[in-house]
Amino acid sequence: MAAQTKKAPAGAKHAAGKAGKIRIQYYRSVIATPVKHKLVIRGLGFTRLNQIVERVDNESIRGMVKTVPHLVRILEP
């Protein structure tokens, strides 16, 4: 039998090639914002104001940040 190569899962190639991190700061309150924005903030892992979290830099996290740019900041490393 010929040797077979294993294929990586579809998302693994992108994640393995770009294992960068992104630091995000939650600096504006979600009071008086739509419920969707509140859910995005919770989904990013924020629990209190001025908190900084580090997440994997991928398209889904960038999309979440793009949804609430008025509430979060991307910090330089």
Q: Mean pLDDT, rounded to whole units?
A: 87
Percent of residues in helical segments? 25-40%
State the shape: elongated
Number of domains as seen in the coordinates: 1
The oligomeric state is: single chain
The SSE order reads: HEHEHE
CATH class: Alpha Beta
Keywords:
3-stranded antiparallel β-sheet, elongated, Ribosomal Protein L30, Chain: A, 77 residues, 3 helices, 3 strands, alpha+beta, 34% helix
Briefly, what is this?
The chain has about 80 residues and is an alpha+beta fold.
Description:
The chain has 77 residues and is α+β, with helices and mostly antiparallel strands. The chain has a single domain, classed as Ribosomal Protein L30, Chain: A. The chain is 34% helix and 19% strand. The protein has helices at 10-17, 35-43, 59-67; strands spanning 21-26, 52-56, 72-75. The model has no long low-confidence stretch (mean pLDDT 87).
